[in-house]
C-alpha cells in the first residue's frame, strides 16, 4: 500500500475577520465594520495546508459540523491537496469558529469550539497509523476530549514506527496541564514557542525550562519569533537566525509555517541544522503575505518568494 507522508491530528475552525471596525463592541449597541473576510482558521489546518504546498502528502484527522462552515474547511483543505477522508463531519455539533475584530496591530478574538470540543481518540484511525511516516499533533489545549489520551496516541504512533511532532500552542485557560513526563518520550520533535515553553515549565529562563524537560524530552525546538529558532537535545544546542525582511505583512501562522518547513525538511532527510533553517525560511515566507496560508499557494510560488525576497534556493525541498 502506498504510504502518505503524514497524519495531522488537530483542531478545525473558520476565522471570520472583521476589519475597520468603528469603535469597540458595547453590550446593547450595534457598531459597523467596513471589511470582512472568511478564511480557513486553526493552527493545525494551516500547518497541513502549508506542508502539503511544500510537497509532503498529508491527511488530516479532526472534527467539524455537517454545515456550511464545515464544507468551506473541507474545500479549502482539498484545494491544497490535503486528504480529508479522516475528518469527522458531526451531525450533532457545529463547526468551530473564531470571530476576530482587528484594531490596528491588535485584535479581540472570540472562539466557539463546537465539534472540535468533542473530538476524541475514538475518532482517530489508530488501525491505519502504519499507512503514515509521521504524526503531527497541534493545539492540545483546544481539544478537550482528546487530552486525556494524548500519551496513548503518541505511544501508538511510535509502536508502529512513525516519527512524531507536537506543537501544544497556547493554553487559553492558562493552566498548562500537560503530562510532559509521560508523553514527551514518544515525541521526537517538541515544537513550542518561547513563551509557551516558559509557561509549561513554570520557569522564567529558557535554559532552566529546557533543564526541566531534559530527562524525558527528545529534541525540543523553541521558536523565538524574530530571533529565529533553537534546537535542544542530548547532542547539544543548535541555533538558526530568522530571515528578517522588509516585506513583512503579519505573523499570523508563522509558527505553523515554521513547523511545516521544519517537518517537511525532516521528511526529506535533512540534518537538524538544515531543518531549522528551512523552518525559519518557511516562517519568514509566511510573514510576507496576509494570514497563514496566502504565501503558500503552491511549491512554485514558495520557491519564487524564497528567490525574490530572500535570494535563497528552496530547491533542496
Ligand atoms: N517578523 C518575522 N520575520 C521573519 N521571520 C519571522 C518573523 N516572525 C516569525 N518568524 C519566523 O517564524 C517562526 C515562528 O514564529 P513564532 O516564534 O512567532 O511562532 P509562534 O509564536 O508559534 O507562532 P504562531 O502564533 O503562528 O503559533 C520564527 O521562529 C521565525 O523563524
Ligand atoms: Mg505557535
Automatic annotation (TrEMBL):
A Pfam family of the record is: PfkB
GO terms of molecular function: kinase activity
Q: Which residues form the Carbohydrate kinase PfkB domain?
A: 4-294
Report whether Transcription shows up as a keyword of the record: no
| Record key words, sorted | Kinase, Transferase
For this protein, the record's Gene3D superfamilies field holds: 3.40.1190.20
Q: Which InterPro entries match?
A: PfkB_dom, Ribokinase-like
Q: What is this protein called?
A: Sugar/nucleoside kinase (Ribokinase family)
Q: Lineage, please?
A: Bacteria, Pseudomonadati, Bacteroidota, Cytophagia, Cytophagales
Amino acid at each position: 500500500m502506498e504510504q502518505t507522508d503524514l497524519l495531522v491530528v488537530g483542531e478545525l475552525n473558520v476565522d471570520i475577520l472583521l476589519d475597520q471596525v468603528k469603535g469597540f463592541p458595547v453590550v446593547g449597541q450595534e457598531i459597523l465594520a467596513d471589511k470582512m473576510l472568511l478564511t480557513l482558521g486553526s493552527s493545525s489546518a494551516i500547518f497541513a495546508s502549508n506542508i502539503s504546498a511544500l510537497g509532503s502528502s498529508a491527511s488530516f484527522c479532526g472534527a467539524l459540523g455537517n454545515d456550511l462552515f464545515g464544507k468551506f474547511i473541507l474545500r479549502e483543505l482539498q484545494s491544497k491537496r490535503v486528504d480529508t477522508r479522516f475528518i469527522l463531519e458531526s451531525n450533532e455539533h457545529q463547526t468551530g469558529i473564531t470571530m476576530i475584530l482587528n484594531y490596528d496591530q491588535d485584535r479581540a478574538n472570540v472562539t466557539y469550539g463546537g465539534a472540535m470540543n468533542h473530538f476524541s481518540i475514538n475518532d482517530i484511525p489508530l488501525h491505519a497509523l502504519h499507512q503514515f511516516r509521521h504524526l503531527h499533533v497541534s493545539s492540545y489545549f483546544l481539544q478537550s476530549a482528546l487530552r486525556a489520551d494524548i500519551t496513548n496516541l503518541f505511544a501508538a504512533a511510535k509502536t508502529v514506527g512513525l516519527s512524531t511532532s507536537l506543537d501544544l500552542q497556547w493554553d487559553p485557560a492558562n493552566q498548562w496541564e500537560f503530562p510532559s513526563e509521560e508523553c514527551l518520550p514518544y515525541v521526537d520533535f517538541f515544537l513550542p514557542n518561547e513563551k509557551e515553553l516558559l509557561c509549561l515549565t513554570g520557569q522564567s529562563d529558557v535554559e532552566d525550562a529546557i533543564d526541566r524537560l531534559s530527562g524525558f524530552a527528545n529534541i525540543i525546538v523553541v521558536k523565538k519569533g524574530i530571533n529565529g529558532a533553537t534546537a535542544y537535545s542530548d547532542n547539544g544546542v543548535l541555533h538558526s537566525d530568522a530571515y528578517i525582511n522588509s516585506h513583512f505583512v503579519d505573523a499570523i501562522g508563522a509558527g505553523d509555517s515554521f513547523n511545516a518547513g521544519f517537518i517537511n525538511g525532516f521528511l526529506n532527510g535533512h540534518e537538524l541544522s538544515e531543518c531549522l533553517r528551512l523552518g525559519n525560511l518557511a516562517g519568514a515566507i509566511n510573514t510576507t503575505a496576509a494570514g497563514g496560508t496566502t504565501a503558500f499557494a503552491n511549491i512554485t510560488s514558495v520557491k519564487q518568494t524564497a528567490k525574490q525576497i530572500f535570494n535563497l534556493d528552496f530547491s533542496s525541498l
